[in-house]
Amino acid sequence: MTDLSDLADKIPVHGMGDAAAFDLVGGWVHERSAQLGRPEAFAHMDPAPSIVAARLAGLNAEFNQNLLHPDLSPFAGEAERLVVKWLAPFFGMNAGHMCAGSTIANLAALWCAREHGATRVVASADAHVSVPKSARILGLPFESIAVTGTGRMDTGLLPDLKDAVLVLTAGTTGRGVIDDLGLAGRQRRQDGGPAWVHVDAAWAGPLLLTKYAGRLAGTRHADSVSVSAHKWLFQPKDSGLVLFKNPQAQQAISFGSSYLATPNVGVQGSRGAAGVALLGTLLAWGLEGLAERIEHLMTLSEDLAERLAADPRTELKQMPETGVVNWRPVNGTAEEIIAALGPVASRTDIAGEPWVRQVAANMHVDLDAVWSRIDDVLSGHGG
Ligand SMILES: Cc1ncc(COP(=O)(O)O)c(C=O)c1O
């Protein structure tokens, strides 16, 4: 592998030209990237994106599209409105905008909640780090609720939710577990219920477009929802959505300025035209093509879990709810296995102990290739 330790010294006084620089830097990217689309890649929530999305993202970059100024990117604005209009009803939502991912989407949603009267944030201990981080940025106290043995928020431990924003996770980062989303509806109907309910569906939200939609049915009771399009909507980064029930809600997080033709919505100012690439994918695959890919990945995660459960060398934590498989070896440690598997697996801690985590994000995955790698490592030949 090329030694890059003296990279700063390589920046020349006289440039080498576009083609040479492209080859050189592109080569380093190739050499030093996990190949997310290779057959045994089953590690993180990051898939290789759809081809049409990757190409359109390149085109967006060439035209330096900017959603902040409608006159610079008139079609891009239209594309975003279109994809939001099409996607939002699957989540029971009515409006929203795209942003750089669910970290930003969560921040925007909690900010909006604060503008609508929420004074504290309540979420499970397994909520994504962006939730307590957003609370800190917004100056809101954060209350963490312990999870049960299954990884779901322990609803028996919920405090009084009056004036709170209750964050429920649809597909936790470590275990892919779905909180009791029905709580969104039940709490909203109560006197002294939360000021706002947000569903963080960064990972599993797209299941609402598939035959697994029932698992996320309670999402429709939320006031806002986050989805990372660069996960199970197969987009290149940075692509996410924050959706709102009330079509007017996001006006509270929109700012006008003398140099802006239209108010700037959400956390970001200038932002790329992620809607163009997402629209391209939806047109290329249709609802059926997208659903088939996700459903196929769900099946593969269940297959992998069954193989692990049946193998005396491994312990499965639980059957996957949203394509995330957690397991560990009976002999040896999860850390040894993760180190030996390399980018085929990732890691998560459950109740303070490390577990292997494998996520069904890669639409090009070959489960036999994944299993053969695991088998090799368990047999001691994989190092
Ligand atoms: C549940 C959950 N929420 C939020 C995020 C943050 O999303 P992003 O990486 O798009 O910023 C993640 C990322 O893995 C996640 O799993």
Low-confidence stretches: none
| Content of β-strand | 15-25%
**CATH superfamily of the largest domain, please?**
Type I PLP-dependent aspartate aminotransferase-like (Major domain)
Second-tier CATH architecture of the largest domain: 3-Layer(aba) Sandwich
H-E order? HHHHEHEHEEHEEEEEHEEHEEH
Shape descriptor: globular
The count of β-strands is 13
Helix content: 25-40%
Number of helices: 10
Give the domain tally: 2
What order do the strands of the largest sheet run in, or round the barrel if closed?
A: 1-7-6-5-4-2-3
Structural class of the secondary structure composition?
alpha/beta
CATH class category label of the largest domain: Alpha Beta
**CATH topology assignment of the largest domain:** Aspartate Aminotransferase, domain 2
Ligands bound to this protein structure: pyridoxal-5'-phosphate
Q: What distance separates the N and C termini?
A: 19 Å
What's the gyration radius in Å? 22 Å
Describe, in plain words, how this protein is organized in 3D.
By secondary structure, the protein is of the alpha/beta class. It has 2 domains: 233 residues, Aspartate Aminotransferase, domain 2 (3-Layer(aba) Sandwich); 92 residues, Alpha-Beta Complex (Aspartate Aminotransferase, domain 1), CATH 3.90.1150. Helix content is 34%, strand content 16%. The chain contains 10 helices and 13 strands. The strands form 3 sheets. Strands 1-7-6-5-4-2-3 form a 7-stranded mixed beta sheet, with helices on both faces. Strands 10-11-13-12 form a 4-stranded antiparallel beta sheet, with helices on one face. Helix 7 links the parallel strand 4 and strand 5. Helix 3 runs antiparallel to helix 8, helix 4 crosses helix 8 and helix 5 crosses helix 6. The chain starts with 6 loop residues before the first helix and ends in a 5-residue tail after the last helix. Bound molecules: pyridoxal-5'-phosphate.
